[in-house]
Amino acid sequence: MNVAKRMDLLGSETAFAVSAEAAKLAETGMKIYPFHLGDINLPTPISVINGAEEAIRSGKTGYCPAPGIPELRIALAKDVGDSRGIKYGIENVSIQPGGKPSIGKYIAAMMEKGDVVLYPNPGYPIYESQIEFYEGIAHPYGYLDNSSGLELDFSAIEKGIKKGAKHIFYNNYNNPTGASSSEEEMAKLADLVIKNDMFLISDDAYFDTLFEGTPRSIASLPGMKERTLTMYTFSKKFAMTGWRLGGAIGPSKIIDQITRLNVNMESCTTHFIQYGGIAGLEASKKETQDILDKLRVRRDMLVKTMNGIEGVEAHSPEAGFYVFPKITKLMERTGFGDVEEFRKAVLNDTGVSFCGRHHFGRPLDNESDSYIRLAFSGIGKDDLKEGMGLFQNWIEARAK
Asked: Distance between CA 223 and CA 4 in Å, rounded?
């Protein structure tokens, strides 16, 4: 039996490959410091757990409506709408088994074979994977690194538009870079989308994990509500990575098509878990604030440590779980010419495990600097400090 040729077009979430590599080392007895995967080692809020348990006991263990139970759709429409200053109704929400499914379902429903689709690179690798799997043309756009942070490369976006792009994936509070758009940058992107009659898929996975200030959503800008599909996940804010609960929020015309795919792919999102989601949305902010406070401490420790190493430059992310330091000069100091070689050497010698820029999309032709990504969501502050100490000692021993 031959594997279908289309499978050659399918990529992967390569951080999981690094995780498997680290797990093999752990089996030998080596202590691993897991900076590689954006999982969360903090407990799911008790209100969510109680909501799901109560639903199980009350018999919510069978099939439920394909777009999700009405109570959760209404609650999510209100939560997403209120936080963005716009109004959504039940018809604008389709519940998903996680945040990720909305990527492939939008592409399957709305992209024709051969369509050009813009996506961030470095970025979540599933955008590129799903565009190419459904035989679209994946056109990447990157970021420009300056003293104030990373900014969108609008020249690359405009090149994609000239090639006919009508779809664009946008991940404010970006994974892996931690990049976030200013109000001016977001308005400029919205203007391009409207003027060129495009549709935008806003991956808002980290919208609710902002450490300071008020989160910004492009769907809030004039003319963008009807041109934006918001991808929502419960994984980050509620530490529910393994529960697999999320939603697609946007124009009903698109939501209806995504729900048709729900019927074909999984029938429905797990019934009782949806009640856990409702409980989370209705819970006090203290439960999720506790998660955010712990993550903030880790972020600050990691950024301070990184910037204390000669040859490393790290921006502090406004939101999310990731630090994306530039290590071009560090590579020179330690005698490495390849980030993957550097990453593996650190892992094998110290147990400190992280990803390289190349795990988040094919490096672009105009890239000359080297970067790594360190996630701080799955490692406590004591192990973070210990692991970074080993990393620093290893560097000093290797430095020229």
From this structure: 42
